[in-house]
Give the backbone structure.
Amino acid sequence: MLVVGDIVTDVVARHRGPLASGTDTAAAIRTMPGGAGANVACWAAHWGCPDVRILGRVGADSAAWHERELTASGVRPQLVVDPTAPTGTVICLVDADAAAERTFLTDSGASLRLDPGDWSPSLLDNVAWLHLSGYLFFSEPGRALVAVTLESARARGVPVSLDPASAGFLSVLGVDRFLALAEGVDVLLPSRDEACLLTGLPDPGDAAAKLSRHVPLVVVKQGGAGALVAESGAVREHVPAAPATPVDTTGAGDAFTGAFLAAVLSGSRPREAAAEGCRAGARAVERVGGRPERNA
């Protein structure tokens, strides 16, 4: 499996209760490797996918560290080192008193500069699945790269999945523009908020059904409410969430996506793959950061 997407540095700050404006708020702060694309790759490898690769752009400031972290997680990094832009950084504010809900402050840095010049059709050699991080859609070079990768995948008959990644950035880009750019994708894995935003429908089941008229398989991630699997204009499965005690919800959706894709590639049907995704999401929220524990 090849993932094309963002590799960033996460600064995770876990605090309790509202932030105290204009003064100090006590927090536990950790610097960790992250990025939606990189997290998906690491979870797919952790969930048993034997060959996971990632194409991403990082700055020279932390390229060696990110390469080591990805390799240690069982992922084969194909890193483009940007000569001028630093690695993207995300500050993750996690309220421990609000079901570990997180808020992101995002400086995408070098990841926004991944472009068609970084692509080669040979990256798909011996690849059975291509996954795109939705963050690619939020810069002009990234959108151009999406078009090139989709063309390469179609030429080789490689299925493509897409995680929209951010309801906030999606609303800025525009729903119609996103859907036009995503044409030809085989699997769409939005969150509940993203699915509702993409359709203008308040009910996630209705949203999943509508999206599945345009994308063959839609899996809507609903956090503690589990996941919906929709095909051919109808919700086919409602998969319950796995029990968990949240510590940090950063990367839970990435964990779902990585485990789901690993299960699909191993031959699981969508319902079973979604159940694996729910299990991975539950495990993710019980850890700080967006990556899984290292395989022994």
Observations:
- The chain has a mean pLDDT of 94.
- Residues 36-84+111-285 form a domain with the UDP-N-acetylmuramoyl-L-alanine:D-glutamate ligase fold (CATH 3.40.1190.20).
- The first helix runs from residue 36 to 46.
